[in-house]
Protein 1
Amino acid sequence: MASPEPSAAAAGAGGDSASQTTAVEPIRMPTPEEIKGQDIWNNCAVRSVVSGVMGGGLGVLMGLFFGALDNPITTEEMTARQQIVYTAKQMGRRSLSNAKTFAVMGLIFSAAECVIEKARAKHDTTNTAVAGCVTGGALAVKGKLFFNILAHKNYVEL
């Protein structure tokens, strides 16, 4: 039976004894709390809501950043206070708009990916690609419906 420790001859012959021995750690079974946490996270509704909330948060941050970069056309005619108020309002509008958009994108993408993954019983890049197509299609349909309703409303008012 071979000893788990390298022999002195092998160590002196050209190798570092520390690099040749690797400690094998025993397999650790998950605790009941970890199993419950995994079961909760594997729920498509929970995963989708969390993704929507995180997408909304990212949208707020991006809206704040890009809203601050918007410059009014008439900056020469505005006082410093007016520019600050304008920029703050612009940041708020952009934050709300981006938060809604990113929340919807995150929710749709995560829900689609989770449902596809459960249906296929595989975890691979195909799920992600199909979920991206579903998300893009859903947002395109939503945008087309919105513009059709808007165009119909304007047509009726004329």
Protein 2
Amino acid sequence: MSTQPSKTLETFPNPHPERDYTIHMEVPEFTCLCPKTGQPDFATILIDFVPDQLCVELKSLKMYMWSFREEGGFHEAMTNRIADDIVAAINPRFLRLTGRWNVRGGIWTNVVVEHRQDGWAPAPKVELP
């Protein structure tokens, strides 16, 4: 196999660091293991961030997400860990990471994690007619 899972998140320079803009990514096939049963857990991971100086490279993000396939962890821990790793790699102005976990025992779980750089605030919302 030419590619392997990896915990390395590669980055590249933000092409427009002078401007706030949002990057939205969806990872619909995230898989890890339930720490209680060892059975697979599935989620869609939604990543929204306002980059500062760096952006995350997509292939490395794919390999990073793949690296959790054989790891056990609670939904809350996995979602926070992914957010922490992305923040450590790119230090975005803002990040919102949502884990939409598939039903388990008749219960849907969504975990939302946010990060803001010190002093950063979004521009006021513009309402157009």
